[in-house]
Amino acid sequence: MTEIMRAAGDKLRxxxxxxxxxxxxxHGLRYITNPPGNPVRVHQHLKIGDGDINWDEFFxxxxxxxxxxxxDTVMVSSVFAEDETAHDVSTYQLTTMTDHVSRYSRR
Length: 107
Fold this sequence. Notes:
Oligomer: single chain
Domain Xylose isomerase-like TIM barrel: 4-71
Strand order of the largest sheet: 1-2
Pfam families: AP_endonuc_2
Number of domains: 1
Helix content: 25-40%
Strand content: 5-15%
Largest sheet: 2 strands, parallel
Radius of gyration: 16 Å
Structural class: mainly alpha
Number of strands: 2
Protein name: Myo-inositol catabolism protein IolH
InterPro entries: Xyl_isomerase-like_sf, Xyl_isomerase-like_TIM-brl
Distance between the termini: 23 Å
Organism: Mycolicibacterium fluoranthenivorans
């Protein structure tokens, strides 16, 4: 992930923050479809901590490229499928993202 951030450098100005699961884990059985081998795609936007993203690497990578030091950058929460608890999830995302940015930001 940080390799991609480094390659993008100053061109990376907008990040959507959502967790997702690594479909290669659990012997490739994270998602069970019937019949097996379906040509389906799974697209997830989970709250931070519900998936497999390494958030220290993510927020640290943004710090490394100076994302937090520029005035032209935007970070947005991008969690879907949580309609019943949307307010709580939004509050959680804001708090968690703010905590991570504060930990890695040089400002």
